[in-house]
Amino acid sequence: MLQYFDVTRDAPWFPQVKALYESAFPANERIPIKHLLDDKIEREFWAFFDKEEGASGSVEDAATPMFCGFSNSISHGDITNIVYFAVEPELRCRGYGSQILQAIREKHPNSRIVVDIEVEEDSKDAEELERRNRRREFYTRNGFDASPVDYVWQGEHYRLLSAGGTVTEKEFRDFWKEILKDIPGAKYP
């Protein structure tokens, strides 16, 4: 069973979260991690741990829960946008990603949950296309459907997926306008 804790600069797991963030997302898809920690935007930045398995990955070492991944999301009104979400590479395909999504849904039972994925058609090679297809299939298995929203942010073309109801392009843009309204120079999708 997963448990989660807030990510702060002082948290003992911050180095693990930072390392996973930097390895899971290309530079053009990241914002400086300090912005994920500041309070200009109210975010849920969680580190997830398996308390049944220990840091070594064994049940015998369960006294030290195993770091599994993190999520970073923003909520406003009835929309929760999962901005960043990653599972440790060696733990993928073991159900942790689905459990993390379930924890977010439980926290926001009346929200439409949205995530964005890189558009498959834009992939430059077969390996990248395979990664994008696996990512889309993962979200589909977890109840996400394609929405009518595509956008470009920092040079990457994204498609929005949603669970719990569709989010229109206007709702998505209004969501980001509201979130970023007090941050000078911030660009929204």
What do you see in this structure?
By secondary structure, this protein is α+β, with helices and mostly antiparallel strands. The chain has one domain: Gcn5-related N-acetyltransferase (GNAT) (Aminopeptidase, 3-Layer(aba) Sandwich), CATH 3.40.630.30. The chain has helices at about 15-25, 35, 95-105, 125-140, 170-180; strands spanning about 1-5, 45-55, 65-75, 80-85, 110-120, 145-155, 155-165. Strands 1-2-3-4-5-7-6 form a 7-stranded mixed beta sheet, with helices on both faces. A hairpin with a 2-residue loop joins strand 3 (about 65-75) and strand 4. The protein is globular, with a radius of gyration of 17 Å.
Fill in the keyword field for this structure:
189 residues; globular; 30% helix; alpha+beta; Aminopeptidase; single chain; 7-stranded mixed beta sheet
What proportion strand?
Answer: 25-35%
Q: In terms of per-residue confidence, which ranges show pLDDT below 50 for 5 or more consecutive residues?
A: none
- Domains counted in the coordinates: how many? 1
Shape: globular
Number of strands: 7
Mean pLDDT across residues: 90
- CATH-derived topology: Aminopeptidase
Overall SS class: alpha+beta
Name the strands of the widest sheet in spatial order.
1-2-3-4-5-7-6
Annotated CATH homologous superfamily: Gcn5-related N-acetyltransferase (GNAT)
What can be said about the biggest beta sheet?
7 strands, mixed
Number of helices: 5
Order of helices and strands: EHHEEEHEHEEH
What is the CA-CA span between the terminal residues?
35 Å
Query: CATH first level: which class?
Result: Alpha Beta
What is the CATH-assigned architecture? 3-Layer(aba) Sandwich
What percent of the residues sit in helical stretches (DSSP H or I)? Answer: 25-40%
Rg from Cα: 17 Å
